[in-house]
Amino acid sequence: AKKVAAEALTKAYDVSKNQALEEAKTSAYHSAKGKEIEEEEEEEEENFLAARSGRFSAGNWRDGEVDAPQAAFIRAAQSLASKLGLQVWYDVCSHGYVWDHLLTLFHVLPGRLLVPSFGEAAWPPGVSSGSQHEGLLTRGFREADVLLASDADVRDFLALGPRHLVLATGGVRDWLAEKWGLRRPEQRTSTSRSAATTRDVFSQVVALSHGADEDHFWGGDSSKVERGARFPTLQFTRYMQRHRHKSAALSSSKLLSWLRPGLPTLLYLATSLDHCSSPAFLSPAPTGTWRCEPGKAPSRVVMRGLRHLCSKANVIVRPHPQDLEEHGLSYFGRALPGAFIDDYRAGRTPGELAELADVLVGEPSAATAAALRSALGKPLVYLLRDERMYSCVRAHVLNDDMAEVFFPDAANSSAALFLRVLERARARDWRSARAARSRYLRRYHGRVDGFEEYRLALRLLELGAGQGDSDFPAAELRELRRLLRNFSHVPLWDTPRPPPCNSSCCKELATWM
Fold first, then answer.
1. 3-class secondary-structure state, position 254
2. Fewer CB within 10 A of the terminal residue: the chain, N end or C end?
3. How many domains does the chain have?
4. Has residue 161 been placed in a domain?
5. Whole-angstrom distance, CA of residue 218 vs CA of residue 157
């Protein structure tokens, strides 16, 4: 018995030793293989970007040519800014939002392009640098415009006076200011970095909207309602239509050559996943402690449907900028190998893509609303997740009068239902929907005439004029308003007015960030 037991122990030891050796070999193999895979993915990402996006051939975004009435306004505005001592720093690190929602203002009120000089690890949760400065020189900005600054540099700049402003966009709640170590007065403690500030500089970080949309109904950024109502949207300006591209043909040549003649073109406009209830159906599944139910992120129904359509149609997918930066363009290329994955860094707008499309599929996002302006008479399938909330806020959102509304979660993993909804959308006569869509866009975008950046500049000058100890420049502001009326008749107060979530059912169901 002892001999048998000893042999068993020896055998067990040998097995254990062999297992340990195998595990060590496996670990070493995977470590080496992991590095190899990582290098391959980096190379694949570069190749994918080059093949799918092409080079962005930009015009002069910095100080491009304008007509005489606008030039007169710009001279007067910059003269008043100099007299007031109004200085503007543009925070260019907020995903892809800065191009259409912030830098459009630069040619009217030039300033410094602010890039943090500290690593992302020092930023508060939820804020990403986005590496926006990499595309500045491409768009006509100069190296002298770019300012690498620490959080202390920004606080010192703001502390110099109330007419020193940092303009930002794309943030949620107070994150835009928090990365600079700023807190609201009620949030400060004796140990906080802002505690020593004798004057409240928090309000000098001016948050512009990165597109008014329905986020506050579907669990996204509720602060968009407030920000959207303060200032006009900048994404539809005539200046950018004129200077976005050096050549319209160059800007879309890669995409146009990819389209297969004779096939319908579908444009899919995606949002990002803020939480598992977000109506985001292509956004990658979160990992770690925050997980969603299988098949929800990304949606099995939508993914299967799009893969099927890739063989029968030209499928263009526009991912959310945040997802592109966090997961890479090649992630979507591997998930939807037959689709054209549009990268916002290639310079195409949702509206330009919508003009190429026969059918639009949209998730609730500013991109969907922007695309709709160029597709008032085209079929639209609107994807939502919360049927109860839709019933509650139907009058305030894109509804079945304006789109084919579809709930993928209720499709029981059937991509066929998604495809049938698309066919129904294509067969429907959308001419009667144009008026309802126009009213919807009027509310979410305000009155748009293409001169929004001039009205925003005047608004900022009025705000700056009300600060400080110098005399209020009433005469100069009256002259600016007169110059503005020479080419724009939209009142300053006519800004986006997204409907609030005031009803009892909305307050009960909403999950805000």
1. helix
2. N
3. 2
4. yes
5. 37
CB neighbours of residue 396 within 10 Å: 20
* 298 and 411, same domain (yes or no): yes
Burial of 13 (0-12, 13-18, 19+ CB in 10 A): exposed
pLDDT digits (tens, 9 = 90+) for 116-126: 776 655 544 44
Assess whether 290 and 382 both reside in one domain: yes
Q: Specify whether the CB–CB gap between 101 and 170 falls below 8 A.
A: yes
First to last CA, the chain: 69
User: What number of other Cβ atoms are within 10 A of residue 269's Cβ?
Assistant: 30
What's the one-letter identity of residue 108? V
CA distance 110 to 100: 16
| Rama region for 244: left / alpha / beta (φ>0; ψ in -120 to 50; rest) | alpha
User: Residue 141 — pLDDT band, cuts 50, 70, 90?
Assistant: very high
Q: Where are the alpha helices (DSSP H) in 266-327?
A: 300-309, 321-327
User: What pLDDT score does 449 carry?
Assistant: 95
State residue 48's pLDDT score: 35
pLDDT at 47: 40
Average pLDDT (19-48) is 46
One domain for residues 95 and 227: yes
pLDDT of 265 reads 96
For residue 264, cis peptide bond before it (omega within 30 degrees of 0) = no
Burial of 158 (0-12, 13-18, 19+ CB in 10 A): buried
With CA atoms as reference, report the closest residue to 210 among 93, 343, 383: 93
Assigned domain for 308 exists: yes
Q: Which residue has the higher pLDDT, 116 or 232?
A: 232
State the residue range of the domain holding 323: 246-445
In percent, the amount of the chain with pLDDT more than 70 equals: 76
Question: Among 61, 42, 126, 129, which residue's Cα sits nearest to residue 91?
Answer: 129
Residue 365 has a pLDDT of 92
In a domain, 332, yes or no: yes
Q: Work out the angle between the directed axes of helices 300-309 and 415-427 (0-180°, nearest 10).
A: 60
Identify the CATH number of the domain in which residue 336 sits.
3.40.50.2000
pLDDT exceeds cutoff 80 at 469 = no
DSSP 386-429: -HHHHHHHGGGS--TTTSEEE-GGGGTT-HHHHHHHHHHHHHS-
Tokens 């209020």 belong to which residue?
472
Q: Residue 42 falls within a domain, yes or no?
A: no
Q: State both tokens at 395.
A: 């009058």
pLDDT of res. 174: 56
Q: What is the pLDDT of the chain when averaged over all its residues?
A: 81
Q: Say if residue 187 is in the same domain as residue 265.
A: no
Percent helix / strand / coil, the chain, rounded to 5: 50, 10, 40
- In this predicted structure, the answer to whether residue 198 has a pLDDT above a threshold of 60 is no
> Which DSSP string corresponds to 83-143?
HHT-EEEEE--BTBTHHHHTGGGTTTS--EEEEESS-GGGSPTT---TTGGGGTGGGT--G
